[in-house]
Amino acid sequence: MNRLSARPHLPYPMRLSLLAACMLALAVGTLLKGTLSFTPAQLYELLHAAMHGDPSGVLDSPPARILLGLRIPRMLLAFLVGAGLAVAGAVLQAGTRNQLADPYLFGLSAGATLGVVGLITLAGASVGTTSIALAAFCGATLALALVAGSAFPRRGEAPERLVLAGVAVAFLLSAASNFLIYWGGREVAQSALFWALGSLGGARWPMLALPAAVVAAGFLYCLYHGRQLDALTMGEESATTLGIDVRRTRLALLLVATLMTAVLVSQAGAIGFVGLVVPHLARHLAGGAHLRLLPACALLGGALLMAADWLARVVVAPSDLPVGIITAGIGGIYFLLMLHSQRR
User: Fold this and answer.
1) CA 229, 231, 233: angle at the middle one, nearest 5?
2) What residues have CB less than 8 Å from 287, skipping those under 6 apart?
3) For residues 139 and 112, is the Cβ–Cβ distance under 8 A?
4) pLDDT at 331
5) 248, 265, 269, 310: which could join 30 in a potential S-S bond, CB 3.0 to 4.6 Å?
6) Mean pLDDT lowest among 49-53, 73-77, 203-207, 287-291
7) What mean pLDDT is predicted for residues 22-35?
8) Mind spelling out the 3-state secondary structure of the chain?
C-alpha cells in the first residue's frame, strides 16, 4: 500500500513538467471546442483584446461573452475543484492509511451537501455565496465529527475504520438531504439538484476568488506537512517514533481536507471519485512521497475534471450534463479495470 520508494523512469521534474504541459494543452482544447467552437487565432485575438484593450470592440460580440464570461471561468473552476478534491483525497488516504478514502466516500461531500440543502430549505434559494460556503463547511465538519466519533470510540483504535464509518455517515447524511428535498417541495428540489449531482455550469468570475484562496492555502499547508503525511502512512508507532503528535497532526490535516471539500462543494456540488481515483494515478507518476505526490495530484485532478466537464458540455449538446455523472462513470470504470487486472 505504501509506495514511498517508487522510482519513476524519468526524473520527477520532467514528469511534472510534462504533466503541466498536457494540462495546459487540455485547458486550451476545452476552450476551443464546444457548442460554439473557436480557432486558435480567435482565442488569441479575444485574450489579447481582454488584456491590452479593445479598440475594435470585439469584446462586445456574443462569442467573446461566451468565451471570456462563461467558458474561461468554467475551465478555471473545473481545475480548482479537481485539484482541491484530488489533494484532499490524498490527505484522507494518508490520514486513514486506506487508499479507498476520498471526500465523497468519507462523508464530507454528503455533509457539505446537507448543510447547503438545509440552508436553502430554511432561507430559500436566494442565499449568498458566503452563506452557502459556511453552511457547507458546517455540514462537512458535522460529517467529520460523526466519522471520528464512530471510528474512535476508544483511544488507539485503527484509523482504517474511518473509511467504513465514513461510508455509513455518507448514507445517513444523504438520507437527511433527500428528506429535506422532499419536505421542502419543488423549489427546494430544483435548487438542491445542482449540489446533489455536481455541476460547473454556474461558474462566473466572482465565484473563483474563494475556492482559489482555499485550495491554494490548503495545498501549501498539506505540502508543508508532506513528511508528516509520509509518516502517517507508515503507521502510528513509526510516526510517534519520529516525534510526531499523531492525533493532533491527523486532526489538523483532516480539518484542512474538510475545509477544502466544503468550499468546493459549495461552488460545484458533490462531485465524486476525483479524490479517489487521482491519487492512485498520481502515485504511478510521482511515487508515494507526498512532497512529490501532492503537486502531481493537483495537476492531474485539475486536468481530469476539465476533461470531464468538457464531456459534460458536448456529450448531450446543447444541453449541459452534470459533471458528477461523468466522474462517477470514470471512477466506476477505473475500479472495474483495476479489479480485472488484479485477477490476472
Assistant:
1) 75
2) 3, 4, 5, 6, 7, 8, 12, 293
3) yes
4) 85
5) 310
6) 49-53
7) 94
8) CCCCCCCCCCCHHHHHHHHHHHHHHHHHHHHHCCCCCCCHHHHHHHHHHHHHCCCCCHHHCHHHHHHHHHHHHHHHHHHHHHHHHHHHHHHHHHHHCCCCCCCCCCCHHHHHHHHHHHHHHHHCCCCCHHHHHHHHHHHHHHHHHHHHHHHCCCCCCCCCHHHHHHHHHHHHHHHHHHHHHHHHCHHHHHHHHHHHHCCCCCCCHHHCHHHHHHHHHHHHHHHHCHHHHHHHHCCHHHHHHCCCCHHHHHHHHHHHHHHHHHHHHHHHCCCCCHHHHHHHHHHHHHCCCHHHHHHHHHHHHHHHHHHHHHHHHHCCCCCCCCHHHHHHHHHHHHHHHHHHHHCC
Query: 5 pLDDT exceeds 70?
Result: no
Contacts of 316 by beta carbon, 8 Å cutoff, 6+ apart: none
Residues 261, 109 contacting (CB under 8 angstroms): yes
Name, in order, each residue with C-beta under 8 angstroms of 321's C-beta and a sequence gap of 6 or more.
311, 312, 313, 315
Q: How far apart are CA 322 and CA 313, in angstroms?
A: 9
Looking at every residue in the chain, the average pLDDT score rounds to 88
Copy the grid coordinates of residue 260: 477544502
> What's the pTM value of the predicted model, to 2 decimals?
0.92
Q: How many CB atoms lie within 10 A of CB 97?
A: 19
